Structures are given as C-alpha cells and as structure tokens.
Amino acid sequence: MLNLYHQIVDFENILIAAKKAQKGKRFTKNVLAFNYNLEGELLKLQNELSSKTYQPGAYRTFYIKEPKTRMISAAPYRDRVVHHSLCNVIVPLMESTFIGDSYANRVGFGTHRALQQCIKFARSSSYVLQCDIQKYFPSIDHEILKTLLRNKIKCPDTLWLIDTIIDNSNEQFPASEHFPGGDLLSPLERRRGLPIGNLSSQFFANVYMNGFDHFIKEKIKVQKYLRYVDDFALFSDDWGFLVEARLAIEEYLTGLRLKIHPVKSQLFETKLGANFLGFRILPYRIRVRTENLRRAKRRIKKMQSDYIQGKISIDEVTQSIRSWIAHLEHGDTWKLRQQIFTSIVWTRG
Q1: Most exposed residue of 52, 63, 186, 210, measured as fewest CB within 10 angstroms of its CB?
Q2: HSE-up of 235 (CA within 13 Å, CB side)?
Q3: What is the C-alpha separation between 320 and 300, in angstroms, rounded?
Q4: Among residues 219, 220, 224, which one has the least CA distance to residue 236?
Q5: Per-residue b or e along 59-96, where b marks 16 or more CB atoms closer than 10 Å to that residue's CB
Q6: pTM
C-alpha cells in the first residue's frame, strides 16, 4: 500500500504513540524530561521524520536470566515513540495476514488464550511435536526480513523508516550458523539480529514467521498448531505424521536461515506433559514450572521496589499483579496467588 508515511508522521499519531510508549514508565527520568517540553519534543521528532533526518540513538543493554540468559536492549524513549508511531499504522495492515494460531504480541490474543488452546490440543491428542527456534531474535536475517516486509508494504518513505530501525539494531548474541548456498564467510557478511524489547522487533518477529505459519497450516495441513514467538507446537494422533512434519519444518526454516533447537525440540506423548509458557500441561492437572514461580516472585518484589522509588504508580502495580494472577490461575497455584494478593494489600498500605 502506498502513501502510508503521512499517517505515521501525523502529529496526532505521534502524540498517541508517546502515550503508549510511556505506559508503565511515566515517572522515569527520561520520560519526565521528554514530557517537560512534550509539544516541542514531538514537533522536533515530527520534523526529523518528515525530512527523513531522523537517526535512532544508542541502546542501553542489560541481561536477565529467565532461566537462560537474554540480552535486553532498551532504546531511548524518543525512539520508542517512533516505534509506536510506525506500528500504529503498519500493524493493522499486516494483522489480516496473520493466522489465528499465532498468539504473541497481538491485541486480543496473548498468553492466556495461547495456554488455553495448548491445553485443549494436548488433552485431545496423543502426541505433540514441541519446538523452539535456536537463538531466534539474534538469528533474524535483515535482508530476508526486509524482503518479507516489502511483499506487503510499498510506500518508499515507510520502507525508509523501517530500514532505518532495522539497520540500527545493536549487536546481539553471536548466532553463527551455516546454511546451504553460503560459504564460510556468509555468517559474518549477513547482518542479523533484532533487539529484544523493541515494539518494532516484536512485530517484525511475527512478520518473519508468518509465512512459516501458513506453511504449517496450508502445506503440511496441521490441524492443531500454535506458536508464541519462537515456541511452537504441533499436535496429532499420528506419530509418523509428526515425524515427517519435523523434517519439512527443518527444511523450510533453512530458507529463513533458522534452526530448531536440537535439545528443546522433541516429539513425545502428551500424557508425559508438554511445557508451554511456564506451565507443564498434564492430563489431569496443570503445574507451574519452578522457575516460573521464582520469576513471579522476583517481578513482584521489583514492582514493589519501583513503586516505593516513585517509578510506577499504584494503579500500574495493581494492574500488572492482577495480570499475573489471571495467568497463574491456569495452574495449581492457590498458595502463590494468595501471596501475590497479600503483596497488593501491602503495597497499598
């Protein structure tokens, strides 16, 4: 579609983007400084985008372990406003091309619906092929991603902004893999990797796997399939069908310069329990994995600390904790949910 850019740089769109970008971060220093002269900052950003003189700033990186180590890249606040301005316009355009079994980073989908569907599939199928893409965000190939985006978006100015964001991605964890048609230098010559934490990266990650989703549903013809970012599962009563499906998947992913994790990707009976989004789905009960319990407690303590320091409001604490409670209700977590409820009362006190 042509002529998208005027919607992206429209002042009202940028203002809406700023409100979205500061959600949960209104009291941080960089947001407060930006909001002190909000209209002036937005007009400056609008001018840079309109004249195509805009250049992203440097990322701030830190590491989390949940349970594996991940590098999180935080873009400057004004860049996050740009990401929202872009996504406000192009996400609805691409949304109609996504299948209903892709649940991550989409309005009306999310972890609750994904987990409910996984439980339904697991309890109505004999076998599951559960896969994890190895180093997904660090492996996303820039050239392939740009080609996929150009298949749908034709506006040259919008493509300029998309390329600017992609090209300014900071260096991620090494993901040196060799694929057919390349040579020993190919992994070094091809630019790869998107920063985890960007709204634009989350959207680009869905675009990158969109063709794969359609391949699973329309070519392999898998009836029961779901994906959440780089975790996906196929369910069936036919073991041989899933064995063949795995071979087809590995071949297709080669075209995206991706590989499934050799250890985490397994075919097994559903009665043994599938792991998905921090839960272990067994025939007659749902258990929360130990690491997910620890993660919940760490996040609660972090939110309480942020509230005490004035970084977030009590409403934001309550909303976030209630979201965690809703997620944990899928499993046998009564004791933990009581602890979380108590923490809300303590925080309000």
Answers
A1: 63
A2: 20
A3: 9
A4: 224
A5: beeeeeeeeeebbebebebbbbbbbbbbbbbbbeebee
A6: 0.81
- Tell me the C-alpha distance between 242 and 3, whole Å: 44
| 43, two tokens | 């007009």
Q: Tokens 């298949």 correspond to what residue? A: 151
* Tokens (6 digits) for 110: 């999310």
pLDDT digits over 85-97, tens only? 999 999 999 999 9
Contact 281, 273 (CB under 8 A): yes
Most confident range (mean pLDDT) of 35-44, 166-175, 301-310, 327-336 is 35-44
Token pair for 247: 């071979």
Q: Are 18 and 38 in contact (CB under 8 A)?
A: yes
**Tens digit of pLDDT for each residue in 139-182?**
999 999 999 999 999 999 999 999 999 999 988 766 656 666 65
27 burial type by CB count under 10 A (0-12 exposed, 13-18 middle, 19+ buried): middle
Question: Could you count the other beta carbons within 10 Å of the beta carbon of residue 28?
Answer: 16
Q: What does the H/E/C string look like for 24-57?
A: CCCCCHHHHHHHHCHHHHHHHHHHHHHCCCCCCC
